[in-house]
Amino acid sequence: MPDTVDRLNALGKITPTHPAMRPKDAATLIILDRSGPAPKVLLGRRHDEHAFMPGRFVFPGGRVEAADARMPSASELDPQAVAKLMQGASTRKARALALAAIRETFEETGLMLGVKRDPPPAAPGDLWSAFAVAGIYPDLAALQFVARAITPPGLSRRFDTRFFAVDAQAITRRTDGIVGPQAELVELLWAPLADTQELGLHTITAVVLEELEARAAAGMGHGLPVPYYRMKNQRFVRELL
After folding, report:
1. What is the CATH number of the domain that holds 162?
2. How far apart (Å, rounded) are the C-alpha atoms in residues 123 and 67?
3. pTM of the prediction?
4. Is the N end or the C end of the chain the one with fewer CB atoms within 10 Å?
5. Total number of domains constituting the chain
């Protein structure tokens, strides 16, 4: 996708303000609703006062926390996804990335993905307490690893983000009151995948959605290659994992 790389290279032409800033591990979750004639994707609009992507529509997600790797789950990631995630990460980190995507999605949207079982999971701290109270174990087998991207150097906030996708049927529980005027996400939108370009998305968000659309057309198999965007020699490159 040469045109995609060209669009991303425009982002790389910045004046470095924090050249030594190392990217932090992060994970995000793309929830697809394919129950209707046209697939829809869940996006949330960030608060206008946020320092990172203010007012933009984004996927729910955030940084990986130490407790994520210790959270029990109903299932594990597909081995092919683990193999791709482990390029630059350990097995433990691969699992933590997927769990972080599920946790952050709940924290930002109130949507909980997993399987209800007894006894409830032993939550490793407050970050996972809502899952323990609900008796829900995260279901990692439902996730697909679909993209990876590293923020260009020189910015005050840099992330090494792994993008996961999941079908909306994996939503087990909904908690109201999470999204609102004073929250991190002020609104949620189920947008038709074909119409997301009209939302003024950040370039990397739009690029990942294009990759996802192509992946869906190819069958959404775990064995499909995963695009990896990063800067090399001051230019963005697209590699396949």
Report:
1. 3.90.79.10
2. 9
3. 0.91
4. N
5. 1
